[in-house]
Amino acid sequence: MSLQIPSRPGVKSQEATTKAVILVGGPSRGTRFRPLSLDVPKPLFEVAGHPIIWHCLAAIARVPDKKISEVLIIGYYDESVFRDFIKDSTKEFPGLAIKYLREYEALGTAGGLYHFRDVILKGGPDRLFVLNADVCCSFPLAEMLRLFDEKDAEAVILGTRVSDDAATNFGCIVSDAHTRRVLHYVEKPESRISNLINCGVYLFSTDAIFPSIRTAIKRRNDRPPRLVSYPSSENLESSFMLSAAAAAAAAAAAAAAGDGDDDDDHRRNEVIRLEQDILSDMADTKHFFVYETKDFWRQIKTAGSAVPANALYLQKAWQQGSSELAPPSAAVLPPVFIHPTATVDPTAKLGPNVSIGPRVVVGPGVRIKESVVLEDCEIKHDACILYSIIGWGSRVGAWARVEGTPMPATSHSTSIIKNGVKVQSITILGKDCGVGDEVRVQNCVCLPYKELKRDVANEVIM
């Protein structure tokens, strides 16, 4: 049944109402975030002292004049996963009504929006922010709203510039430099078309986005059935015999199973993605614009990418004079976040870009740089931790060295080639790992509950 969306002509900007949606995915995704996602869902992993999704909420709460009052989190994690986070966030951001909507299966970035369209449209919002939770940036939402109003837009996408080599790994935007109108959009093109890329943050008119998704669903439903590949002429007869037999067997199996192919096709038709199925069509409307951010941006896809994301958020907090950060001193090179319950010996040296979690104990003479140390860890005296993530409850012995490899600030990758093999540039210890005294661990990923009693480099320790 199609949804009739009432038009609201002539809505003035001060009268316009806005909702926000944060897309969090689900447990079958995020395999690249292992081993960290084995113990905590990626959206709740802490960078710069807060869960990744918290940074999205904080940006929404910063939009002036309380223009956004409701936030819907859409994903297919169990409801219990976000229960405590939503309870705490509602107290921290009292101006936001926060609700979790669970998909029955992965529906895609646009399919989830369409599935919950009745909830999203309740109250008649005129505009809808859509944020991907695995994005690290300053979220210039107020600036996107301003551009939206100035251009009388139907959609505004957040964009940023990357190197030409990296651009083809993202959705690429071709825009008019003067008007900022999006002329063309291609998701992960095979050849370079632009180095202006999609940041995964959008602002849509509700009158435009849901009809666009409905059109994409109809287009997919109207597609002819999948075509079989025809055999070459020299094998035509034998291939036809085999194909006919196979088709008969498949038909019999489908009949016995109650026509399961239709169910599969139905599921495929419901998986609709903004990036592949919607944005390229929107570029034809002449009401699609791009706000290009000059501030920081990167994806949080792999576990290693949490370290540069941690650094970027800490640097932003430092620039804004956040009281959460440790004051600079001879032992603290800012920016550094130290949880109030952590114990750090005054002779240890931390920073820059370090986060220390709850109940961590850092011993004398320890050096930590460009790293995340998660809750309940113990770092014994004179240990050194560089470009690493130390998992919950892990122990690093005296004079041990846990280190990764620094990457250029402009890089959007966290992998390097060592001895002809691709390895993580960031060293990651999973939950409850142990590193013995005087042991060196370099460019490794260590699964939970492992004890490292000898030097190891460029390995996945299972």
From TrEMBL:
Mannose-1-phosphate guanyltransferase C-terminal domain boundaries: 333-459
Keywords: Transferase
Molecular function terms, GO-annotated: GTP binding; mannose-1-phosphate guanylyltransferase (GTP) activity
PROSITE patterns named in the record: HEXAPEP_TRANSFERASES
Pathway participation: Nucleotide-sugar biosynthesis; GDP-alpha-D-mannose biosynthesis; GDP-alpha-D-mannose from alpha-D-mannose 1-phosphate (GTP route): step 1/1
Domain of life: Eukaryota
Domain Nucleotidyl transferase per the UniProt entry, residue ranges: 19-214
EC number: 2.7.7.13
Catalytic activity: alpha-D-mannose 1-phosphate + GTP + H(+) = GDP-alpha-D-mannose + diphosphate
Keyword ATP-binding (UniProt): no
InterPro entries for the chain: GMPPB_C (IPR056729), Hexapep_transf_CS (IPR018357), Mannose-1P_guanyltransferase (IPR050486), NTP_transferase_dom (IPR005835), Nucleotide-diphossugar_trans (IPR029044), Trimer_LpxA-like_sf (IPR011004)
Enzyme class at the top of the EC tree: transferase
Nucleus is among the record's keywords: no
Family, similarity comment: Belongs to the transferase hexapeptide repeat family.
Stated role: Involved in cell wall synthesis where it is required for glycosylation. Involved in cell cycle progression through cell-size checkpoint.
Protein name, entry field: Mannose-1-phosphate guanyltransferase
Source organism: Sodiomyces alkalinus (strain CBS 110278 / VKM F-3762 / F11)
Record lineage: Eukaryota, Fungi, Dikarya, Ascomycota, Pezizomycotina
